[in-house]
Write a structure and sequence with these properties.
This protein is mainly α and about 260 residues long. The chain has 13 helices and three strands. It has helices spanning about 1-5, 10-25, 30-50, 60-70, 75-90, 95-110, 115-130, 130-145, 155-175, 175-180, 205-210, 210-225, 245-255; strands spanning about 185-190, 195-200, 230-235. Helix 3 (about 30-50) packs across helix 4 (about 60-70), helix 6 packs antiparallel against helix 10 (about 175-180) and helix 9 (about 155-175) packs across helix 12.
């Protein structure tokens, strides 16, 4: 079910399955190990077909394995297996095992996205033609999410509208990056710097966001939205005591102009 959800890009369903496994007492390290063995079976079946000697998959589930193998490229399966094996090693020495497990499966969904090759081809051909269709599509995306110009929004509503727009566009670029950004809050902009805040309990999300693989799609999206290169500053805030503490604390650190979002 987890692999089917990853192929279908159903991150919500995948999160539910992982949460249910944890509630049933399954350890994150064991779940990653079993998933690695499943990916091994999937890769082997993709390579040799019905003669594959399977380790994890029961005979009655060969039909599902075959259907999954037909949807995926062997190179992506090899990368997915490496991801699962690497994560299985890392999780042994990590205190945040559940987070690492969830991040691993979000990364897996990104790798196993059947639509990715077609999207890459479209982007490449767009660049060869001057990228006008691609640029038009991105402009349409922004226009469909952004509030109508005639609407008068409060600073809080404007900030939230920009944040939701940013999340939606990042999601189209890279699902794991979207998953890492979702718990954060947009504090605002100060010059060419965007300030994004996490609670202390999401410290690892912030650390992952500072990796190039996540920072690059975020900066690309900001460039598309603001039509200029933007830097990103991630900050950690104390746990909220009330709904206004997040913004209040940011104002104390950066000054009131940080909460101003310019269209």
């Amino acid at each position: 079910d987890l692999i089917d959800a990853a192929i279908a890009q159903e991150l919500g369903r995948m999160a539910e399955l992982l949460a249910e496994a944890v509630r049933q007492g399954k350890e994150a390290a064991l779940l990653l190990r079993e998933s690695s063995l499943y990916m091994r079976d999937l890769l082997l079946y993709s390579a040799v077909g019905e003669t594959a000697g399977l380790t994890m998959v029961a005979e009655q589930n060969r039909g599902r394995l075959k259907a999954q193998a037909q949807k995926l490229r062997r190179g992506d399966l090899l990368k997915a297996l490496q991801l699962m094996m690497d994560s299985g090693e890392k999780i042994r020495f990590n205190e945040s095992q559940r987070f690492l497990m969830e991040y691993c499966f979000f990364e897996l969904a990104h790798l196993l996205n059947p639509a990715a090759p077609a999207e890459a081809a479209v982007s490449a051909s767009g660049r060869e033609r001057g990228a006008q269709p691609e640029q038009a599509e991105r402009t349409a995306d922004v226009a469909s999410i952004a509030p109508a110009p005639r609407e008068k929004l409060s600073k809080k509503d404007a900030r939230e509208a920009v944040w939701q727009q940013l999340l939606a566009l990042v999601k189209k670029k890279r699902l794991p990056t979207h998953a890492l950004l979702s718990p954060a809050k947009l504090i605002g902009s100060k010059g060419d710097v965007i300030v994004i805040a996490y609670k202390q309990s999401y410290r690892m999300h912030r650390e992952r966001m500072e990796l190039e693989e996540n920072l690059t799609p975020l900066k690309e999206t900001l460039q598309e939205m603001f039509k200029k290169n933007m830097e990103v500053e991630f900050i950690l805030l104390n746990e909220e005591e009330n709904n206004n503490l997040l913004v209040k604390e940011a104002i104390e650190q950066f000054g009131e102009d940080v909460v101003n979002i310019k269209d």
